[in-house]
Structures are given as structure tokens and as C-alpha cells.
Amino acid sequence: MRLGLVLTNDWELFGDGSGNYYDLQHRPLASLLRAVEDHGARLTVMAEVGQQLAHLEAGVRHPWARDIATAWEAMLRETIKRRSDVQLHLHPQWLNATWDDTRHWQLDLGWWATGAVPGDVLEATLIRGKHYLERLLQPIDPDYACIAFRAGAYCLQPSRHVIAALLSAGFRCDTSVSKGLMQPAFYDYRDAHSNVLPWFAHAHDIRWSSGTADGLLELPIYARSTVDIPILRKILSPALYYRLFHGVRVPIEDRAWLAEQRRTRARRYPMRRRPFRGDGRSSVRWWLAQALSRGALQLDYDALPPEVFVRLLEAIFADDQTTGLGDAVLPVIASGHTKDMHSTANVARILGAVRKRLGERVEFWTLREAVDQWTAVAA
Asked: Is the pTM of the predicted complex or chain greater than 0.70?
């Protein structure tokens, strides 16, 4: 068995609509594309289309919004030119967004979760987003197809009508589930079919396997159950946390990067601005949710030290779930966010460590390749 490592990136502004596009998306993505190419890898950009549609609408009246929308399109064309991939990501709170006189986006937080959007609205939005990306990118690559989806903040439940809308809109794959993750009131993936093996979803619930080789393919974001106390992960220094709970000594350069990453996110997206988190009325509930919400460590190249990232990959080869795969190449989904990235140093060290430790046992795929390859294996 080998691994087909898929580096996905949720390419977006913050959940309340704040942030500078050029600082959080445009320039970081250009740097990230160069970094992965330097290590023989490619990227799959999960492009937030709700945000883009809102900017296109605002651009009719505001030149600054039109300029951002144009730059967004140019960056995705460049991504395809460089043989990386683009697929569809949606935070539905953007669907009713307005730009107000205080010069801020006002988003519809009642539609924070994809599962909360009525089926007809969701299907129409998915079709519009898919066609928009294909019209934009097929002039660069005639074979380009938008076939994969990721729900904003992983909020795909309730999923029955979402699965139906995705299939009706022509999507072949979802990649929103991480087994072991749970966020009260939004999703609970603790009993998902697998943390690493893909499955074709049951029509009623994305977490369940249909037992067939057709329908909507779920490619889970890889996560591994471990001793994990999320509230301590936020309080302790990264070096101390990973030494206490994972037995990993984090080198000085990795400690510095992770510490700066934490400071950067706190500065760019203060707790007081985060929807459903940290306001005076709900802060106790938020901290309680953090203590209960996660029982797994996700394969996130913006959050993990290289040693931990590589150990998670190595564990797949010893996993009982993978023993019967023979010579198959198993797609493994990793995630990241340019909005959280202050430099590409961490992902560069991760890719270097993957090459050094795992060599030819790992190859780098795009998400489109993973869907095609695994569908062929399943058939």
C-alpha cells in the first residue's frame, strides 16, 4: 500500500466576513503554491464561492469589491495553470450577505451550517458555484471539472438533503467529515464510518456507508483518535502540549513557528469577533464545548509540528483498517487555511520530512485525482 496525500486548503476570509483578502488569501496562496511545488507536491484549493458571489454582487456598486473579485479569479486561474486543483467550498452565511454603511460585511449567521440551508436554495447555489468555477477554469484546462465539495466549518448535518442536493448538482465527492470531531449544535462525527478509509455515503446520513460502490463518495479529512484535551491545546504552549500528550519533542524552529501562528490568528481574528464563541453571554458554554468537542487530532499542516504530521501518516500503515488494501494507493486528505498562515515554513518542513521518512510510500495527488483513482479501485 502507498498513500496519495492530498493537500487541501480552505481558501476564505474569516467566519464573520472580516479580513483583508490580499493578506489572508491572495499573497499567502501564491507563496503556498511555490512551497508545495518546491517539494514536488500540488495543492487543492477549496474555493469559498459564497464569499466570491457576494463580492461580485457588491462590485456592481463598489470598485474595491470588483477588484477583489477579479483578483480572486486571476489567482484561481494561476492555480490551474500550475497544475494544482480547485474545488468548491461554501460558508452559506455569505448567501444573504450585505455590505453596510459601517464598511463591514453583515452575514446571515442563521445559515452558518450547510445543513440549515433549505434544499432548493442549496441545490441552486451548488449548481451556480459549480458552473461558475467551470466557466472560469476550463479555458485554462479544458478537462477541469468541479466535482468535490467541503462544507463551511465542516457543518454538513443534517445531511440527508445536502447529499441529495450535491448529487443533483453533479458533485461526485464530499470531504467535510473528520471522524472523532464534534461541535455541539452543529455536527457530531464521532461515529463516522472511518477516520481514513473513503466510503460511499448512505443517502440518509453522510456518516454512514451505503455498502455500495456508487453515490456520493466521502473522502474524510484524516484524523486519529488520541489522548486529546482541546482546552489544554489552546492554553498550553505547543511544545509542552505535544510533549505531554504525544511524546514529541518539538524542535526550536517548530516551536517558534507554532507560537507565531497562534499569535497571528489571535491578532487577525480576536475571540470577541468569532460567531458563537467567546461573547459575554456564551463564553462559559463555548469553553465547555471546547472541552467536549474533539476526540481526534486532525491532519492539519497549519497546526501540527512536522514530527507529529509524519507520525500520523506512519500510523496508517499499521492500522487494521488498511491491511487488506494490497497494492492500492489510499487517498489521505490533509487540510490547512491560508488565513491562519503567517509563512510557509511549517508546510515546507512537513513536506521535507514526508519525503525523507516515507519516500516512495507517499505520492502527492490533487483531490480530483483522488476521486478518480479511488472510484476506479472501488469499482
From this structure: yes
Per-residue pLDDT tens digits for 23-42: 999 999 999 999 999 999 99
Report how far residue 171's alpha carbon sits from residue 156's, in angstroms, rounded to the nearest whole number: 15
Residues 137, 144: contact at Cβ < 8 Å?
A: yes
Domain containing 86 equals 2-378
Q: Is 169 helix (H, G, I), strand (E, B) or coil?
A: helix
Question: What number of other Cβ atoms are within 10 A of residue 291's Cβ?
Answer: 12
Tell me how far apart the alpha carbons of residues 202 and 41 are, in angstroms, rounded to a whole number: 33
- The burial of 89, by beta-carbon neighbours within 10 Å (0-12 exposed, 13-18 middle, 19 or more buried), is given as buried
Q: How many CB atoms lie within 10 A of CB 61?
A: 9
- Side-chain-side CA neighbours of 95 within 13 Å: the count stands at 23
- Contact between 105 and 64 under an 8 Å Cβ cutoff? The reply is no
Number of domains, the chain: 1
Structural element, H or E, at residue 32:
helix 27-38
Distances (CA, A) of 375 to 148, 206, 211, 275: 13, 17, 14, 37
Task: Count Cβ atoms below 10 Å from residue 275 Cβ, excluding itself.
Answer: 15
CATH of the domain at 90: 3.20.20.370
pLDDT in tens, 117-174: 999 999 999 999 999 999 999 999 999 999 999 999 999 999 999 999 999 999 999 9
